[in-house]
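Re-run with default settings, no changes from the original entry. Doing this only to confirm the output is reproducible before filing.
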Amino acid sequence: MTLTRTLSVQQRIAHTEADGQPVAFAESGDGPVLVCVPGWISDIELGWAIRPERAVAEALGRGRRVVRYDLPGCGRSRPAGAVPSFELALAALDAVIAASGADRVDLYGISFGTAVALAWAAAHPGRTRSLVLYGGWADGAALAPPELRERIPALVRAHWGLGSDVLADIFAADADATGRASFARYQRAAASAETAADILALSYRVDAATDAHAVDCPALVIHRGEDRAVPVAEGRRLAALIPGARFEALPGRSHIPYLGDVTALSALMLRFLGIAGPPAVPPALTPRQREVAALVADGLTNREIALALTITEKSAESHIEHILTRLGFRSRAQIAAWFASGSGS
């Protein structure tokens, strides 16, 4: 195994290997190690630039050394010569934990990563302090009918542009059009069509029931109530398989954890992990955006906002779209409630 380190802005980038394949990981924060097990495809550098994703990592970093990594073939873990497999995903997690130097870890599994986290915890009894599982499932065959389980990876493989747009509509359902387009671009930047299709196909073959039964640590299972990719019932089934697991449903339709109410998500995680301090909050608005938010709270239309601020109606509309994206909201009513609560002051 080789291990090299470089420094990036506020996160430490490192490289190791799993079964001869490259694995890049990033560390931030301080404390006992918490490893974020990626769901599907990711890019630790691009993800760090996504404000809500970074906000959650920074909130966790108040009490944990947070380790995020890319699966071989994704993000900074390229080039990789091996075809993605569950065994390689598990080896990548094992390599990252070994490189962290930790004997015991907390695991935060996301989507497909929940099955990988469960498998590692089951194979290493006593080494997992706790499990946080977001958007997971026990039986991949339950996610979609057989024809869809074949067609969606085939679409991604043949037409990655269209495929990434389709998946953005499903995975990022709470985002506006701009946010979904941004997520589609992120997917295409994070992995090739072949890698994305292979890992997506793996997701449909997940069978985590046996590993779930074997978990011997506290577990928190979180799911969004209207998740368009993985029905909330699958999250409940997964929680029921894990001895003593706690299940929490959050409002929202997005499968991606940082698209939606990251404050509520991080608050659940922080309480479960015993990390003190406030939960993650979306970044502050610019002065102009605060002005627009105040007028939205007053009930003004885009045209009225434009007249009040001496800007074009198109500019007013653009400001509102940026506010929705930055705060992770879907409606003007949410902006109004947010401002009325004093958050905009």
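The first strand starts at residue 4 and ends at 8. The radius of gyration is 20 Å.
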